[in-house]
């Protein structure tokens, strides 16, 4: 192991000598999940590391939520829309709630070549219109070399009532906290 | 642990050698010829990079024939250096060209292409400011900013969309736009193996990054919905003049833009993408008609960057009171309307983009030391011009078929026994008589300046017949037009990663 490490180190020195003055390509690689930075530059400028932290920005701690879920109080049997940041980009269609799940479709009305990401958040309410739980539908387009499907403007969803509020949920709300379409 | 670190470091350095050779190769021999004397002819005071998203060679030709006639020229076509750019992407976890693990993908998306010219590396579709293995790579706009240039980023898309974001953010997935983080939109376990902590820049929503990293001094475009009140606070804390209200989700207007001043300006004119020009022209009293055109945003961005360029910079080599600026301008809706196969709006967006090119060209002529590059990230939808009165295979009663199973690649017997339209699939011109049939595969027709008086769009008598192959990107090389210091490097064909070196050398940041 010692010898192999030594050879690797020697190769490294050769590598460094070869690149000085031409290109600085510094890779600080770690295990999966570690931050890595590669500075790909040429010429006399000093290596540059892009800003990786942002003062005052609190990292996300969970799934995206909508404040509006607690602000609506639907009557038993009702399904209402919960306000979100992208409400001008879609319409909700064919909404239905049977006590066990809420279903429907989001039809994107702005530019659509692909819907890259969509999260539909469902709030569930008791007979007094109090939010008792929520669940979500998540769509993420996996990018690949081919797009076998035509542009998708309408995505259907079914969101089951969480088990811990089953039987108590008598109404629902629907909101969209995540929508990325192009 | 110590030994592991040593091996890792050694591996990294060997990788560094390979990568360095690759990067050097990407830009050709000129990459080794960086000069810091500031006096050679490839040195520019300013660089303006214009990007017609989805603009293939046929988009240019069709717009020329539509608006200026076959013998005319778009503004971009009058630039002296002209060539083509190859645009391929790579698969996830691919090495760079020349590496043993290099795995090309012939058709790029806007994110991979933006990373190619912004950072000089090939990456996978959806990646921004990271290479194909997920490592963060600096962008040209970051380098320019660090070197003391003023910087601007203008787009008709959401400013968090791939092309503008490619200069101002680092993200594993282009869908991580904000305003909130989500695992599905932001993480990519096929790259990282395990979920990254949400504090990692690569999974930080792009809007949050743009509002806090100060990479661009002037930011104009769409996408107000991606930003929230905390972003507005962060922007104002850095000295940005914010047009409209982010906290109130009130979009800025062209009047706001006209009166904007200051060294740092942030203006978003639509909650999503800006409105297509044809729609604004057809509805002049609408709210959307109050959005500025790309030309107006380009002109104002240049003005703001010019006025602010003596912004305390002591490393001034321009002789004009500042170091100069680097500005990216995107006509994004060419692509979006090409995806939709809407030829009228596609052409309208081409005209709007070319009008912005004309503004930039005029500035560059006055300035005398500005490198202007006009190109695209990829072609979209296989846009084509067919002969007047003819039809495509999609309309044919008997589309070409392979009848020689022994020679599947090159048929040696006739494959088109008849050559006639299928009446069910070709009911007329899609922007004319056939518009009512959603199954129609017919072309869209447009009058040209030399058509006889009375000939209208959608008429079989119109001179310009346009078709689309698909609703998606293609792998065709895209055109590039350029003028100014170093533009001669764009004569011929280059790869999109070479644009990084050409711009970087002009600005002396690589």
From TrEMBL, chain A:
Residues 1-26 form the signal peptide. Keywords: Signal. This is Uncharacterized protein. It comes from Cryobacterium algoricola.
UniProtKB/TrEMBL annotation, chain B:
It comes from Cryobacterium algoricola. This is Alkaline phosphatase. Keywords: Hydrolase, Magnesium, Metal-binding, Phosphoprotein, Signal, Zinc. Residues 404-421 have a biased composition (Polar residues). It holds the Pfam family Alk_phosphatase. Belongs to the alkaline phosphatase family. Its cofactor is Zn(2+); Mg(2+). SMART domains: alkPPc. CDD domains: ALP. Residues 396-446 are annotated as: Disordered.
């Amino acid at each position: 192991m010692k010898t192999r490490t030594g050879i690797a180190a020697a190769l490294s020195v050769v590598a460094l000598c070869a690149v000085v003055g031409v290109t600085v390509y510094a890779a600080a690689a770690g295990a999966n999940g570690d931050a890595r930075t590669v500075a790909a530059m040429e010429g006399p400028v000093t290596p540059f590391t892009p800003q990786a932290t942002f003062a005052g920005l609190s990292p996300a701690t969970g799934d995206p939520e909508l404040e509006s879920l607690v602000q609506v109080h639907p009557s038993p049997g009702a399904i209402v829309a919960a306000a979100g940041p992208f409400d001008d980009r879609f319409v909700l269609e064919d909404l239905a709630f049977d006590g066990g799940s809420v279903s429907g479709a989001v039809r994107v009305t702005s530019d659509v070549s692909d819907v890259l990401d969509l999260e539909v958040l469902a709030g569930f309410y008791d007979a007094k219109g109090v939010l008792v739980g929520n669940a979500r539908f998540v769509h993420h387009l996996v990018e690949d070399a081919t797009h076998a499907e035509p542009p998708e403007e309408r995505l259907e969803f079914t969101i089951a009532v969480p088990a811990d509020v089953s039987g108590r949920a008598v109404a629902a709300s629907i909101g969209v906290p995540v929508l990325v379409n192009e | 642990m110590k030994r592991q670190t040593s091996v890792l470091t050694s591996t990294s350095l060997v990788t560094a050698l390979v990568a360095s050779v690759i990067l050097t190769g990407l830009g050709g021999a000129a990459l080794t010829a960086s000069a810091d004397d500031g006096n050679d002819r490839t040195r520019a005071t300013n660089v303006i990079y214009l990007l017609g998203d989805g603009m293939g060679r046929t988009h240019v030709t069709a717009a020329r024939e539509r608006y200026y006639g076959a013998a005319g020229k778009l503004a971009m076509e009058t630039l002296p250096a002209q060539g083509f750019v190859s645009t391929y992407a790579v698969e996830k976890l691919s090495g760079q060209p020349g590496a043993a693990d290099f795995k090309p993908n012939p058709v790029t998306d806007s994110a991979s292409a933006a990373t190619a010219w912004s950072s000089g590396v090939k990456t996978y579709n959806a990646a921004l400011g990271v290479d194909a293995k997920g490592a963060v790579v600096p962008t040209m706009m970051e380098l320019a900013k660090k070197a003391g240039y003023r910087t601007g980023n203008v787009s008709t898309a959401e400013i968090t969309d791939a092309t503008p974001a490619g200069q101002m953010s680092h993200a594993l997935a282009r869908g991580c736009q904000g305003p909130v983080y989500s695992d599905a939109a932001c993480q990519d376990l096929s790259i990282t193996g395990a979920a990254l902590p949400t504090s990692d820049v690569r999974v930080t929503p792009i809007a949050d990054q743009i509002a806090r990293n100060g990479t661009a001094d002037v930011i104009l475009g769409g996408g107000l919905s991606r930003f929230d009140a905390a972003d507005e606070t962060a922007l104002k804390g850095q000295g940005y003049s914010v047009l409209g209200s982010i906290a109130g989700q009130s979009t800025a207007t062209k009047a706001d833009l006209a009166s904007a001043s200051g060294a740092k300006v942030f203006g978003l004119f639509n909650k999503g993408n800006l409105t297509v020009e044809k729609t604004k022209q057809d509805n002049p009293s609408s709210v959307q008609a109050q959005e500025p055109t790309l030309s107006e945003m380009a002109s104002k961005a240049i003005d703001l960057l010019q006025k602010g360029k003596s912004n305390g910079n002591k490393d001034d080599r321009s002789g004009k009171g500042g170091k100069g600026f680097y500005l990216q301008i995107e006509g994004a809706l060419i692509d979006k309307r090409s995806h939709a196969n809407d030829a009228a709006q596609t052409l309208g967006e081409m005209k709007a983009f070319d009008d912005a090119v004309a503004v930039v060209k005029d500035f560059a002529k006055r300035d005398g030391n500005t490198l202007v590059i006009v190109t695209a990230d990829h072609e979209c939808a296989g846009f084509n011009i067919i002969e007047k009165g003819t039809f495509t295979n999609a309309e044919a009663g008997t589309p070409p078929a392979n009848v020689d199973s022994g020679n599947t690649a090159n048929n040696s017997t006739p494959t088109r026994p008849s050559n006639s339209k299928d009446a069910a699939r070709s009911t007329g011109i899609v922007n004319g008589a056939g518009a009512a049939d959603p199954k129609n595969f017919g072309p869209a027709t447009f009058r040209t300046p030399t058509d006889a008086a009375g000939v209208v769009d959608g008429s079989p008598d119109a001179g310009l017949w346009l078709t689309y192959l698909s609703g998606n990107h293609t792998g065709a090389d895209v055109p590039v037009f350029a003028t100014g210091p170093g533009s001669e490097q764009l004569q011929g064909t280059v790869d999109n990663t070479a644009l990084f070196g050409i711009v970087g050398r002009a600005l002396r940041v690589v």
